[in-house]
Write a structure and sequence with these properties.
binds thiamine diphosphate; binds magnesium ion; alpha/beta
Length: 392
């Protein structure tokens, strides 16, 4: 290609035609049951003709709102704790509450979830004490919850790796004969838009497909992989990739808790009945930084963030509850107070988490240790003892 050819960008990359770039990042075919202004849509049709609808009681609608508010407040508290030096790092879920609460509440008790490092909302829905991930991010323990007890695997930071773990697990569920009935088991794997470029995720798609694994791939497309925008990951909407692997894909409004619930419940039930995997692309936006180590003002403009603020998942649920007179001001005030009290309680408990003995980092590497590790532990102990007044 000649220098100066308009199809080659100034950075030497071949730019895709504007129409193809737009196709990947536009908002086509969203399944939506609650508009950004809080209007209810009775039912929505997916790309394969599936009709999505929800039928919640008023109490259940209020419960979803409570989940959204609590999860956001606890997340904000964790961010504040990091800023005050009490956590090493925090990956905020701000903006993604509806995708996480909707899908998390759609899980049945027997279903297994494989999270990334950002699924604090799903963790909350699984009934895990929110102090647990804070111990991990404070660096005082390994995370702490029992994945089998809560049906929620450990956080995974290696991008996309958990999709393979989930696929293997789901293949096992299928081979154990735990699918094919209404109370069968299903598995869900969470990952981001950036993860879709990883080999692991594409391998997981292949294996899940050909072994008919009871697995829902749940991609939260929050538009960024740290500083890399979606257009650097794909030229087609992500949910359409599923077709090439031989299973259905659907794009849901990830800021709509009702649609996120409906789409996930349907996909999980199909999986448990033995109909194999599917891909859900929850179209959402990371309102905050990638983690507390990131500064998003260096790579995205304020007007983009403002445009997404108008689609806030909590504001639309509140508007709906208010318009339909499902909740009143006293209810909203009560939820705010509950969230505040839980955040204060969380903070108190974080500050009380005991510091582990430095040498304990060698303890859980192997079940029975190793000569090499024993030597390292001994050297490190001697080093610590060299400090005046050392208690080690
Ligand atoms: C295998 C691997 N490569 C790179 C990284 C560094 N890294 C951490 S988060 C991240 C971006 C992930 O983006 P996405 O999948 O969209 O998830 P999000 O953080 O937006 O939720 C990268 C590249 C990593 N943790 N693991
Ligand atoms: Mg992302």
């Amino acid at each position: 290609m000649a220098k100066g050819d308009p199809a080659v960008s100034s950075r030497g990359r071949r730019a895709a035609p504007r129409s193809r770039r737009a196709a990947a990042t536009a908002e086509p075919e969203l399944v939506q049951l609650l508009t950004p202004t809080g209007e209810r849509i009775e039912s929505a049709t997916g790309p394969d003709g599936t009709e999505y609808r929800v039928d919640f009681t008023d109490e259940e609608y209020r419960g979803l709102y409570r989940d959204l508010v609590l999860v956001r407040k606890l997340d904000a508290e964790a961010t504040a704790l990091q800023r005050q030096g009490e956590l090493g790092l925090w990956a905020s879920l701000l903006g993604q509450e509806a995708a996480q609460v909707g899908s998390g509440r759609a899980l049945r008790s027997q279903d297994m979830a494989f999270p990334t490092y950002r699924e604090h909302g799903v963790l909350y829905c699984r009934g895990i004490d929110p102090i647990m991930p804070l111990g991990l991010f404070r660096g005082v323990d390994q995370g702490g919850w029992d994945p089998n007890e809560f049906k929620f695997n450990m956080y995974t930071i290696v991008i996309g790796a958990q999709t393979l773990h989930a696929t293997g697990y789901a293949m096992g569920v299928h081979m154990d004969g735990k699918t094919g009935t209404e109370d069968g088991e299903a598995v869900i794997a969470y990952f981001g838009d950036g993860a879709t470029s990883q080999g692991d995720v594409n391998e997981a798609f292949v294996w899940a497909s050909v072994f008919n694994a009871p697995l829902v791939f749940f991609c939260q497309n929050n538009q960024y992989a740290i500083s890399e925008p979606l257009e650097r990951q794909t030229r087609v909407p992500l949910y359409r990739r599923a077709g090439g692997f031989g299973f259905p894909g659907v794009r849901v409004d990830g800021n709509d808790v009702l649609a996120s619930y409906a789409v996930t419940r349907h996909a999980l039930d199909n999986a448990r009945l033995g109909q194999g995997p599917s891909l859900i692309e929850a179209y959402t936006y990371r309102m905050g930084a990638h983690t507390t180590s990131d500064d998003p003002t260096r790579y995205r403009i304020a007007s983009e963030v403002e445009a997404w603020q108008a689609k806030d998942p909590i504001a639309r649920m509140k508007a709906f509850l208010d318009k339909q007179q499902i909740a009143d001001d006293a209810f909203f005030a009560e939820i705010d107070e509950q969230a505040r009290a839980e955040a204060v309680h969380l903070r108190e408990r974080v500050l009380e988490l005991p510091d582990p003995a430095p040498v304990s980092m060698f303890d859980h590497v192997y079940p029975h240790g190793s000569p090499e590790l024993d030597a390292q532990r001994a050297r490190f102990s001697t080093y610590l003892e060299s400090f005046e007044g050392s208690a080690h």
